[in-house]
Design brief:
The complex is a heterodimer.
Chain A (H helix, E strand, L loop, with lengths): L3 E4 L2 E5 L4 E7 L4 E9 L6 E7 L4 E4 L2 E6 L4 E6 L8 E9 L7 E3 L3 E6 L1
Parallel strand pairs in A: 2-11
Antiparallel strand pairs in A: 1-3, 3-8, 4-5, 4-9, 6-7, 7-8, 9-10, 9-11
Chain B lengths: L3 E4 L2 E4 L5 E7 L5 E7 L6 E6 L6 E2 L7 E2 L9 E3 L8 E8 L12 E2 L3 E5 L1
Parallel strand pairs in B: 2-11
Antiparallel strand pairs in B: 1-3, 3-8, 4-5, 4-9, 5-6, 7-8, 9-10, 9-11
Classes of the chains: A mainly beta, B mainly beta.
């Protein structure tokens, strides 16, 4: 069964600190993995997207890593800001269908305190 | 910011009412999707469309229906709303794989928060 598991479920950190969010998946055949940021009451917005051959990708203070062998990914946030408070969703796409089906994790709810 | 719009953003209605959630995109994307999301839970695909006059049911069974008469428009209708339909509904769109889109990246609208009393 294709699944995406994220940890931790929620996380509270102080402004300026770093944090790392984890994602494990069992989706096969693998196409790509994305990290989305979803603010409360809004739709998800893409942060990074990585294919099988990519190990790391950065977008400003966000750095995603991918280990396709162990089927794990992480999202590292550097020097957190209050605006980073949101749900971070790991999404994996398979390449077995023309739809490019997406499998969503439940997200990690990050709260940044001043 | 993606050019995909949803209206209304919030809707509170009584049981038995018919409602239509609107979704429009100006990116010319062929594929469009409707997802349902409950608090703290993952997004579930309820409908999708490959293009005009194409609609398919997603993974999660839903009593809603959709139509795709125009490329840019993908409305979702509930004929008779019930409290169990209370949820957030997210619309998304993506380019066709054959057109070489960016890994079929889906762009999401802001969502409609539906509450049925």
């Amino acid at each position: 069964k294709n699944q995406v598991e994220q940890s931790p479920q929620s996380l509270i950190i102080l402004e300026g600190k770093n944090c790392t969010l984890q994602c494990n998946y069992t989706v096969s055949p693998f196409s790509n993995l994305r990290w989305y940021k979803q603010d409360t009451g809004r739709g998800p917005v893409s942060l990074t997207i990585m294919t099988f051959s990519e190990n790391t990708k950065s977008n400003g203070r966000y750095t995603a890593t991918l280990d396709a062998d162990t089927k794990q990914s992480s999202l590292h946030i550097t020097a957190s800001q209050l605006s980073d408070s949101a749900s971070y969703i790991c999404v994996v796409s398979d390449r077995g269908s023309t739809l490019g089906r997406l499998y969503f994790g439940r997200g990690t709810q990050l709260t940044v305190w001043p | 910011e993606a050019d995909i719009y949803q209206t209304p953003r919030y809707l509170v209605i009584g049981t038995g009412k018919k409602i239509t959630l609107e979704c429009s995109q100006t990116m010319g994307h062929d594929k469009m999707y409707w997802y349902q999301q409950d608090p703290g839970m993952e997004l579930h695909l309820i409908h999708y469309s490959y293009g005009v006059n194409s609609t398919e049911k997603g993974d999660l069974s839903s009593e809603s229906t959709v139509s795709r008469i125009r490329t840019e428009h993908f409305p979702l209708t509930l004929e008779s709303a019930r409290p169990s339909h209370t949820s957030q509904y997210l619309c998304a769109s993506s380019e066709s794989r054959l057109a070489g889109g960016s890994y079929n990246e889906q762009f999401f609208g802001p969502g409609t928060r539906l509450t049925v009393l």
